[in-house]
Amino acid sequence: MDWDVVVVGAGPAGCFTAMQIANSGFKVLIIEEHNQIGFPIQCSGLVSPRVMELANLDDSIIINNLKGLRVLSPLGAQLQVDCSRVLALAIDRAIFDQKLCEKAINAGAILQKGLKATAAQSIPGGYQVTAVDKNDKNYTLNTKILIGADGVESNVAAWLGLKHDNLKAVMYSADVELAYSDANLVSVFLGQNFAPGWFGWIIPLDLKTCRVGIGYALINSGYSPRHHFQQLIDCYPQIFKGYKIIRNTGGTVPLGLMPKIYAPSAMLVGDAASQTKPISGGGIYMGLRASQICANVAMQALNDNDFSEKKMSIYQTLWENETKEETDSAMKLRQSYLKLKDKDIESVIRFLNKPKYKKLISKYADIDYPSILAHKLFDYNPWLKVALKIAKI
Ligand SMILES: Cc1cc2nc3c(=O)[nH]c(=O)nc-3n(C[C@H](O)[C@H](O)[C@H](O)COP(=O)(O)OP(=O)(O)OC[C@H]3O[C@@H](n4cnc5c(N)ncnc54)[C@H](O)[C@@H]3O)c2cc1C
Questions:
Q1: Do residue 21 and residue 140 come from a single domain?
Q2: Is 17 a pocket residue for ligand 1 (Cβ < 6 Å)?
Q3: Which of 254, 287, 313 corresponds to the end of one domain?
Q4: Test site for ligand 1: of 15, 19, 29, 43, most ligand atoms within 8 A of the Cβ
Q5: What own/partner pairs with CB < 8 Å and gap ≥ 24 does 134-140 have?
């Protein structure tokens, strides 16, 4: 075999997985179809402080610290919660990817940019990956373990027979020039008309630049994501007065667990394995955490020279032990949210807009683990759960 591990995709999940395996002295190759790591950016770069600790990166990629949240109902109600702690960070996503990639290379992984994997087939003792470079030159790479970290449209998943039609959130996001009154406050816009099943957002970078985005989580809303973005702008003319798009991006995020994320001698990680948060679509934290588990299982397999289905299945077991409860309950919440009409959203926001609930939100809101806050709210007011059941939400 040429390689112990071939990782397809140099996004955060691929690089972080590669770094850990290479750190233990294994021969790791990362192939990335683009020539520049971190580009094109398909992200709004909002992460919890936990991500920086996990990735062990310095603060230089942090653009802004966010300490508050304002949720707006389409019918006028608002809920604003200010926290004394940092709730989330706006980061430079391209540099984040580049730094993780640098770490993988420093650990000993080899990076091949501008090389696109085009097929993978099982061979005795592993996989044979076929790849093509920008000059149409073909490469054949033999590896003991193949790791698909190739994002939401993962071809590796398809080649391994693991492709699953998960629900997806479709998003449009833009960096905009916009006068915004509170540089530490994230705004979330709810409304089934402009953001069916999802939400819109403003993430301030400073007092005059923000990331504004919108998504929908229905199979097909009938309109383009850009159309939904315009609807959001039109709904809030005062907030978006004078806005100017600097650059824009978009893409999809898979939601919910995948039935199978491994095969003999192979694993999927990150968006390729649908390792995202169903409430927000954030995939960076989940992808990094999954990378740690994936890398550990790969290293055990290499040490034991055992690449069997059973050995690789440990990855899925460990991943589900850690996340199934949170992900499934978030998916249920998502389903419940789909049933809400705008007038229901208005009622929920008005109901929560009381000092006692705002205090709980301020104390327990966690963008990686929203169920913590949900449990605290239900513990505080058990009738809330009953009311939701009666309303069949
Ligand atoms: C509009 C938008 C906003 C978002 N905002 C946030 C946010 O604020 N916070 C957050 O946590 N998450 C956010 N996400 C989700 C986040 O971007 C993803 O979860 C994250 O990028 C997943 O990382 P990954 O490494 O799994 O995959 P990716 O980052 O998609 O990386 C996959 C890599 O594989 C490469 N590749 C693909 N196919 C091949 C091939 N055949 N051969 C070689 N290379 C290949 C790609 O070029 C790419 O570099 C957002 C997503 C979108 C679309």
A1: yes
A2: no
A3: 254
A4: 43
A5: 134/35, 139/115
Q: How far is the CA of 168 from the centre of ligand 1 (A)?
A: 14
CB-CB contact of 162 with 181 (8 Å): no
Q: 186 to each of 42, 178, 307, how far by Cα in Å?
A: 19, 14, 45
Q: Is the pTM of this model over 0.90?
A: yes
- How far does residue 377's CA lie from ligand 1's centre (Å)? 33
363 and 282 in a common domain: no
> Does the pLDDT of residue 181 top 90, yes or no?
no
Instruction: Measure 42 CA to ligand 1 centroid, in angstroms.
Output: 6
Same domain, yes or no, for 35 and 183? no
For 139, the domain range is: 3-42+94-165+256-324
Q: What is the pLDDT of residue 329?
A: 87
270-296 pLDDT, tens digit each: 999 999 999 999 999 999 999 999 999
Same domain for 240 and 371?
no
Asked whether 8 lines ligand 1 (CB < 6 A), one says: yes
Pocket flag, ligand 1, residue 38 (CB < 6 Å): no
Distance of alpha carbon 258 from alpha carbon 391, whole angstroms: 30
**Cα–ligand 1 centroid distance for 225 (angstroms):** 18
Beta bridge partners of 7: 30, 147
